[in-house]
Structures are given as C-alpha cells and as structure tokens.
Amino acid sequence: AGAETVKRAVQLDVASRFQESLVCYQEGIDLLLQVVKATTDEAKKQRYRQKISEYMTRAEDIKKHIEKEKKDGKYHKQIRIEENATGFGYEKLFQEYLTEIVSEVWVEDPYIRQIHQASRYLLYNFLRFCELLVKGPCKVKTIHLLTSYEKGSGRSQQITALEEIKQSLSNYGVTLNIDFSSSIHDREIRFNNGWMIKIGRGLDYFKKPQGHFSIGYCDFDLRPCHETTVDVFHTKHTKKM
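That's the MITD1 protein sequence above. Prediction below.
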C-alpha cells in the first residue's frame, strides 16, 4: 500500500498537481515507516530508509514550492469532476482549506434560490455548506452571501428560507449577512485565510437524486455529479464585498 501511494505521489508530482502529490507523499511515507518497523531484515530496512529519505526530501521541496506560490499569490489547483462521478461531497472539496483560523466566509452564487424547482435544491445545498462550516474545525463567525432574487412568487419563499437559515446559524453564534444583486454572474467561495474556490456550477454540481429514499439523497459523497471544473487559488488578501 505504501509503494502504491508513493507511486501515485510521483505521478501527481510529474503532472504538477503538487498539493495532491504532497498529500500522497505524506501518506506513503507514513505507510513505509510502518513497514520498516515490521521488517527484521536489516538490508531491506536500509533500502526502505533510503527511499523514505528521498521521498521526505521531495515532499519538503514541494511544501516550500506551494508556500512560495501562496506567498506570491500564484497558487492554482484545478479539479475536474467528471459526469456522474461520485465522492465529491462538500467535505471533499472544502475541508482541507477550512483551517482553524477561518472565521469569515464569502459566498457569491446567483442561484441560491428555487427551493421548489424539481431539478435543483440550491437553498438546501447552501444549507449543507453552512452545516459544514458549523462543524469546523474552523471557527466561522460570519458568512456573507451574495445572490440574486428569485423571480415572481418564489421570491417570498426564497427570503423566508434564507431568513430561517440565518436564524438557525445565529443559534451557533454565526452571523449570516445576505445581499442581493441583479447583475451577479460569477460563482466563488472565499475564506479569510486566503483560499478562494471557483466552481463552474457553484454549489449546484450534484444531480437530482432518483428519489427521496435513494442512496445519495442524504450523503452527497454518494450522489452523482454533473461535469464541472473546480479552481482553487490562494491570494494574499481575500477581497471584501
């Protein structure tokens, strides 16, 4: 398992997918260290130690490279979610960026609405995202939402739902600030630790579940996705709305 994980790390390294490569290197090194402890053959131990040393050196170089890109505001990671892919719940995409220093979050998405539309559950998606923020390990105190108004009679339902989310968040010590714009088009999520995530479809990249009692209805990791691209950046300063 250690050898396979390190092999994957090298492949990601060659493809310049450094953040993913670093994670695989670290996991592979941990697994190989366990092998060393269980091996009685001194010659094998020495070979493993040499390889581990090489991987540790490369992992440290990658870590320095990533930190430099972050410092220079040049960091960019791209994730391609294929049609019908699973395993891309919000935890998968956002968890590694929700460090303990995150206290403020900005969400720009023009379609946090349409609770009644059969093909979309966008207000519920936003609620799921808020639940992720509440669970931590970050200490979010303020969420800023910029979206657009629902058209026609659905507007009052949209506002009622958002106000309910706002009230529920306040019970956890989190303030939700809601603003509306008729010209918003971009979809992005920003954290005050400098991370910015742009998803082509915003929070609405999941397909409609087959039924209310089908696998994937509750657990987004099991829900098939629409094809989309996720771009992750690190900026020196997260812009304010």
